[in-house]
Amino acid sequence: MYRTVGYSKRAIARELDISRKTVHKVIVEYESALSCPDPESSVESVLTIQPRYNSSRRGRRVITGSLKDLIDDCLEQNARKRAMCLKKQCMRGKDIYELLIDKGFRVSYTGVCKYIASVTAGKKDDKSSKEAFIRGYYPAGESCEFDWVKSSFT
User: Mean pLDDT over residues 108-114, rounded?
Assistant: First the structure.
């Protein structure tokens, strides 16, 4: 697009919905591959290689002990509420995340969700403990079902 159509780097970035820096990087790699002694194989390797991202400078937000304790308390409260048939009053991952933010913790939502998933996956037993629904098939006239309703007409 840059050489054939004559688009600017900004126009290419806008059309492909990627960063201008990424477009610049790809164009520079492509042009350097063209200037090599064997441009055909160099261009092929540039265009088929998976992009690598440098994530070494990113700060990792670790879930610390006090944060884990708070999330575990929320999950225990959820277990108690489920045992008392109060499923709708349980805290979702988003609710736990908002509670942590309100308490002043700097943590990401995905970090909280990953921790919750790891804790709940560790608590689950083997696959035999999962419930299954088996549809029953009954020929017509063999089974009958009715509901009794008490109604008052005024």
Answer: 89
